[in-house]
Amino acid sequence: MRAIRRFTVRNVLPERLAPLDTLALNLRWSWHTPTRDLFASLDPELWERVHGDPVELLGSLSPQRLEQLAQDPGLVGEVERLDADLRTYLTEPRWYQQLDGDGQHADKPDTIAYFSAEYGVTAVLPQYSGGLGILAGDHLKSASDLGVPIVGVGLLYGAGYFKQSLTRDGWQHETYPLLDPDNLPLTLLREQDATPARVSLALPAGRTLHAQIWVAQVGRVPLLLLDSNIAENDDVSRRVTDRLYGGSADHRLRQELLLGMGGVKAVREYCRITATPAPQVYHCNEGHAGFLSVERIRELVQDAGLTFEAALEAVKAGTVFTTHTPVPAGISRYGTDLVSEYFGGGAEIDGVPLERVLALGSEEFEGGNPAVFNMAIMGLRAARRANGVAQLHGKVSRGMFHQLWPGFDVSEVPITSITNGVHGATWTDPSFSDLVSERLSPEQITSGEGFLLQPEEGGISDEELWAMRARLREKLVVEARARVRRSWLDRGASPAEVGWTDDVLDPDALTIGFARRVPTYKRLTLMLSEPERLTRLLTDPERPIQIVVAGKSHPDDEQGTGLIQRLVQFADDARVRDRIVFLPNYDIAMAQSLMPGCDVWLNNPLRPLEASGTSGMKCALNGGLNLSILDGWWDEWYDGRNGWAIPTADGVHDQTERDRLEAAALYDLLENTVVPRFYERDEAGVPRHWMEMVRHTLGTLGPKVQATRMVKEYVTELYTPVAASSRALDGTSHGAAQELATWKARVRAAWPSVHVDHVESEGIGDVVNVGDQVEVTAYVSLHDLCPDDVEVQVVGGRVDDQDNLTEVRVFPLRLKESYEGGRYAFSVSRVLEGTGPFGYTVRVVPSHPLLAAPAELGLATSTS
Ligand SMILES: *Cc1c(COP(=O)(O)O)cnc(C)c1O
After folding, report:
1. What would the pLDDT profile of 765-814 be if each residue is shown by its tens digit?
2. Domain named DUF3417: which ranges (predicted)?
3. Is 336 close to ligand 1, i.e. is its CB under 6 Å away?
C-alpha cells in the first residue's frame, strides 16, 4: 500500500470576513447564540448539513459564495460587531478580576491548571463519554464567564469515544470515526519560529513518547490537548491517544502518564510561549491525571534540588483533587507490577525512587489490595484539599476513603464537597432564554425571583410559560421522530417500513426523559420492572405518558449493553413503539434538545452511587421537573415543590427486591401524582398546579444549579486557600516545604512512643446535669516530641446503642504542666450542653501550622 500524505486545504476568507476565523475558533460560539446565528445566516441549509459546526461551514462555502457575502454590508457589519463583542468578552474585567484582593481572596491564584481525562465542550469536539467530561467542559465555560484564569489540560483522542448505533435486534454497535484535527476548532501550539511545540516522556527500554499540543480556546480559557499521533513516534506511541477509555491497562496507563506528566510539561510550554504566569493551583479532576504530581516532584527534585519528601510537600500544597464516583469501576487502578515498569528498573527517574511513587497510590490499608496502584488514592495523598461533588457524595467519600486516615472519625476525613452545576447558557434552550431576557431584568433572572412573579407584578404569565414548554416539547418530538426514523433505516428497515415513525410521540403528551451512560447502578431498565403496568401508562387513551431514552454503554460492559437491548426490544413492540423511543448516540447535541423538551426528568440510580448527576439540572433550567431517587444533587435540593422524590428501600439488601420496591414506588408516583397533575387543566387549558412547580423550579433551583455558582465555590473554598499554601511551600524558596517534610519525618519516627497515660475528670459521674462545668485533665508522654508538636483533644459526642460516638465534636486541651521525661498534663473545662447519653475519649494528634488538616498524617493516639 502506498503511504498517503494527508493535508487539508482551508478556505482563505476575504479580508472583510476574516474575523469569522476567530469567531469559529473560539468555542464561545457554542454558548453564544448571536454568533451561531451569524454562522447559520451564511448558508442556513449548509449549516444544517454540517450540524452547526462553524469550522466545517467555513471550509465548505465556495469562494464565490464567500465573495458574495463579503459584498453584503449588513453581514460585514454584523461580523465586525460580533468580533468586537468577543474581544470585549475576552479582555474586560469580570467577576474574578473584581474580587477583593485584600480580604478573603488576597491569595487568589494567578493561574489554575485544570486536568481532566475528558472534556465535553461542544458536540463538534467529541472528547467525552459522559457526565465527567460535560462537567469539565461546563467548569471551563463558567470559569471563562467569571474571568477565572484557568488553563485546561487533556488529551486529543483521535476517534473520541465512540458512535453508537443499533443492530436489528437491539444490540449496541460501536464505530470509531477518525477526527481530523485540522478540521476541528483547534490551533497547534507553536514556538515563535512556527515550529510546533513538543513534549516528550521517557518510556521503558529507552523509548520516548512525543506529543504535540492543540489549543481549543474556550472563551477566555485555553484548553491544551496532547496528541501523540505524530511522525516522531513509533506506531504504538502514535496510538496512545487513539480513543477515550479503550484498550488494555497498559494502554490506559500510558494515556494517564501522558495526561498527567506530559500535561505538566505542556502547561510549562504554554506558559513560556504565551508569557502566562505559572500556576499555583493544580486541579486534578478525578484520578486519571494523578501523575501530574510525580512530574512536579521530578521538577523540584531535579531542578531545585529538593528531597523527594520536601518536593511532595511543595506539590501537595498546590493541589486540589476532586473525586467523582463511589463506584469502584469508575476509578483507575493498575497492577503495581505494571506501574513499576514505568518507574522502576531502567526507567527510574533520578531522585524519584520507584517505591515512593508506588507508595502514593498503594492500597496498603484495611480492605485494600496491596498489588494494586489506585489513582484516586494517589489523588488524595498528593492533594492539599479534596472534595466530592454533592453533600451526600462528600459523606459517602469520607466513608469510602477513611482508611487513609486511621484514628480519626469518618466525619473528620478531610474530604469536603462542592455540588456540581451546569453551564446555563449551554443548557438553556435559546428560545426560552430569549423569552426570559425580553421579559425579566438580568438581576431577576440571576436571583431567580423574576420567575416567581405573576404578570401583574411584571412576571411571565402561566399561559406564556406553558406555551413555551409546549414549544420545547414539540421541538423535541420533531427531532426524536427524525432520529427514530434514521435509526430504523440504520437497523436495516426499508423506507417503506418506517412510515409510522412520522407520528411517533405526541407533542401534547406528558414527556419523560431518561438519558445517561448505562452502568448498572443507573438502572436503565428499572422502568421495565412491571411491563404491563408501564404499557398501561404509555397507552392510556386519555392521559398517556411518553418516554424518550438514550445512553451509551461502555463497549466492554456486557451487562450495560444487555440493558440497552432489553429496553430497545421493549420499545420495538408495536403496541408501545410510538410512546417509548430509544435514541441512539446520546451526545451534547441531543441533550440540548432533549432536556429542554422533557416535562419530567427521570433518574433512578441505586442510592448512594450517583455522585451528583447533572442532567436533571439542565432540565430544571428549562422548567422541567425532576422525578428522582434522593441521590446526588437531588438529595440536597429536592424541597417538595420542585419535583418528586422516589422513595428508596435503603435497608433492603436483596437487590432484586429493592429494585422491585423502588420501581413500584415510581409507578405509584406516576399514576397517582405526576400524570394527574400534568393533565389537570383549567378552562384556559393550563395545568395551574404543574405550572406552580415549574415556576418554583425555575425560581429557586435555577440559580443553584449554575456552574458559575460551583466555580465561585471552587475559587473561594479551594483554589484561594490552596494558592496560599502553594505560595508558602512552593514559592521562590522551598524552606517551608523542607521544614514541614523534616518535621513530619520526626513526628512519624517518634509517634510510637506517644501515649495517653492517664485521664482525670472532675464533675463527670454517671449522670451529669446540663449546664454543669466539667474539667478533663490528660497526662501524656510525648518523649522526643514537644507539646507544640501535638494537640491533645477531647473527642466527644453522643453514644449510640452500639457504644459508638456519633455527632463527634473535638475540643483542644491546653498545656497545664510539664514533668520530667517528656510527660505533660493538658486540661480543658467546659459547660455541658444538650442532654442524653454522651461519651468521650482523649487523643493526641500531630499539630503544625503548615498542616492542611489535623488528620493529614493519619496519626492519632487515644486513651486505650
Ligand atoms: C449532562 C450530560 C451527561 C451527564 O448526565 P448525568 O445526569 O450526570 O448522568 C452525560 N452525557 C451528556 C451528553 C450530557 O449532556
Report:
1. 777 777 788 899 999 999 999 999 999 999 988 888 887 888 889 999 99
2. 13-125
3. no
